Amino acid sequence: MSDGDCPEADELEAAAAWRLRKVDAEPGDAVSAAAAVRLQALADDLRTGAAAKLVAEYRCICNWLAESDGIEEFNLFAHDYRVGIGVAYHPDNAAAYIGALIRIANDAFGMP
Hints:
With 112 residues, the chain is mostly helical.
């Protein structure tokens, strides 16, 4: 995937930037520093297309949620997951990250 066509990576990079702002405010915040590195690594992995099949499935789920008025609630769940990466959640790669988002959607909205 090229730059600009991967909103999932953009969201991870936004979370990484938020973590870096926390480090700027508190230079000793090693947790946020490490989380920013993990978030950026996941974004980079997504941009390689390594999880393209899962991303396609995830986007279909998001489209379904948008049509059923569940996307706003899901976005809140996804945001909470993203900002917890490096602290409470530790996906190893893009596939694990997208897989977690798919599970969140399945659990929250009873999807097959």
